[in-house]
Amino acid sequence: MPAETRLFRCLSDNYGVLLHDSESGATAAIDAPEAAPVEAALKAAGWRLTDILVTHHHADHTGGIAALKSKYKCRVVAPEKEAAKIPAVDEIVREGDKVLLGKLTANVIETPGHTLGHIVYWIHAEKLVFVGDTLFSIGCGRVIEGTPEMMWDSLKKLRDLPNDTEIYCGHEYTAANIKFARTIEPDNPVLAAREAEAKREIERGLPTIPVSIGDEKLANPFLRADHPEVAAGIGMAGKPAVEVFAEIRARKNKF
Ligand SMILES: [Zn+2]
């Protein structure tokens, strides 16, 4: 397992993460909300930045790119469909592309919905996926540019990854997400356990991520829109999954 990660907070509730290949020394920042916390994490780990892998164009994921690029001369990899909105891009990628970070290979998966060009980086051999603002612990991103159909399809792609894949997402939203999820599935025992676990972590000042695909499948209502009990629970028994998903997302927007 040559991959190492460092997770750290940025801005108000963003996460930054470094991915390091211990064999080659290559180190990527997954998104760059702001430069200073990325540099602090690099310094603490004794790593040098070689790459920035961007998930989508929002300012709270790209604000640190220009400063980091000018200091480290690192490669900036970004989604093809949003490259024009992202500073200092060196390489554009699309569905099915592979990004090499030393000995590590990241597969690019397009997950439109939150934004139209959003991508995630999946490192199969290391059981890691960096999902930006598509999927959160017990939640999902707002459907800002795309449609509920797009977002539901994107979430199903992520749900199909192996259960033991560790998810690194762009924000610490877990407590609020669980509070909402309990209104959708009040009797889900796995969700109740996740609530207790997150409470313990937050009280100790720990991050609530990463979380696994397998655990999310059992408790994240946005990945469960095609479960009959979820549809029935919100008065939509027999409705298509995408409509159930859209209703859950609409309720969360107003929560
Ligand atoms: Zn975003």
Characteristics:
six-stranded mixed β-sheet; 255 residues; binds zinc ion; alpha/beta; 24% strand
Question: Can you give a write-up of this model?
Answer:
Helices cover 35% and strands 24% of the residues. It has 255 residues and is an alpha/beta fold. Strands 1-2-3-4-5-6 form a six-stranded mixed beta sheet, covered by helices on one side. Helix 5 (174-184) runs antiparallel to helix 6 (189-203). The longest helix has 15 residues, at 189-203. The protein starts with a strand and ends with a helix. The mean pLDDT is 97. The protein binds zinc ion (ZN). Residues 56, 58, 61, 114, 133 line the site of zinc ion.
Question: How many strands?
Answer: 14
Give the structural class. alpha/beta
Cα end-to-end separation: 41 Å
| Percent in strands | 15-25%
Shape: globular
Radius of gyration equals: 18 Å
Bound molecules: zinc ion
Largest sheet: 6 strands, mixed
- Amount of helix: 25-40%
**Poorly predicted residue ranges:** none
Number of helices: 9
Task: Give the SSE layout.
Elements (H helix, E strand, L loop, with lengths): L2 E8 L3 E8 L5 E4 L4 H11 L5 E3 L5 H4 L2 H8 L2 E5 L11 E3 L4 E4 L2 E7 L8 E5 L4 E5 L2 E2 L2 E2 L7 H12 L6 E4 L4 H11 L4 H15 L7 E2 H7 L8 H6 L7 H14 L1
Parallel strand pairs: 3-4, 4-5, 5-6, 10-13
Antiparallel strand pairs: 1-2, 2-3, 7-8, 8-9, 9-10, 11-12, 13-14
Helix pairs in contact: 5-6
Bound molecules: zinc ion.
